[in-house]
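Researcher: Can you fold this with iron/sulfur cluster in place?
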Amino acid sequence: MKASFRRDLLGWYRREKRDLPWRRTRDPYAIWLSEIMLQQTTVATVVPYYENFLKRFPTVFDVVDQTDRSDEKLLKAWAGLGYYSRVRNFAKACRVVVEEYGGIVPASFEDLKKLPGIGNYTAAAIASIAFDIPVAVVDGNVMRVLSRLLCCDEDISGAHAKEVFQKMADEALEKKHPGDFNQAMMELGAMVCTPRAPACSRCPVQKHCEAFKAGSWEKYPVKSRKISYRDEKWFCLVAQDKQKIFLRRRAVAEGMEGLWELPMTRDWKGLEKARSKKLKPVRHTIMNRRMTVIPVLSSDFVGLEASGRWVREKDLSAYPLSTITRKVLLEALR
Ligand code: SF4
């Protein structure tokens, strides 16, 4: 990539970048938190969670201090973002930072990668943005942008894609300003060079783009392997009694331990005789599972588990609820 490409991209980023709270800080802890929250979650959703989490837990010490007692408050601050293993790993990694690095986030790509929940992408993002370490980030956005810029035929779902694109991204990187450059590539992928309708007419690097010159952006990125989704149907029991709702706590073996949820079942048989009413289905996708969840409003409480409890509707917000439960309650209590 030519120096003029880097100049055009960085100039555009500095003029046009979105004003996001994690772009106003160089605090490695805050940047790390934003990167973890942004995994699989949109910017608009993350902003209020990020601000709220930082208010409650402004340093690694606050996270560790809280998890010494119970992780319920951490889970609650995360509730609604989904993928709860992220916050659990974040808490484990904060403990390592406190115990092994005296509470200072390590300024090293390799050391960051050793922390729980931090892979290549997140380590590169923290290292470059917080510490100016010249290492390029590579994710789906960056692969799409690079493959269009260079008309690259490498299959992004192939086994070697990450390696190949990492090499390309490292070569393209502006080494004096790696943090801004990485964010500029991500911003370009999110705001201009989008998957289905890239805004080539206002693209700051249009004159450097091979796919634009060839009129062939639709061909890139090359992706041969598609995600195969598994469709699942579930029933979710909304047991209501005197403005109270029955919730159960997830156990260790079920994953997402500590979250509270409405009882769920695949089997309608147990519910058909209950005094119940089916509500509009709620859709939820997690990894490759596409779930259709039918809320069942019921006043027949036979068979509810001992592990649960009745919670007043006005107190529901005090519980770390699973995402499906939050969606179902929105439908059921509207
Ligand atoms: Fe993407 Fe179009 Fe810009 Fe090329 S010119 S990088 S295809 S937005």
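Model: Folded with iron/sulfur cluster in place. The chain has 14 helices and eight strands.
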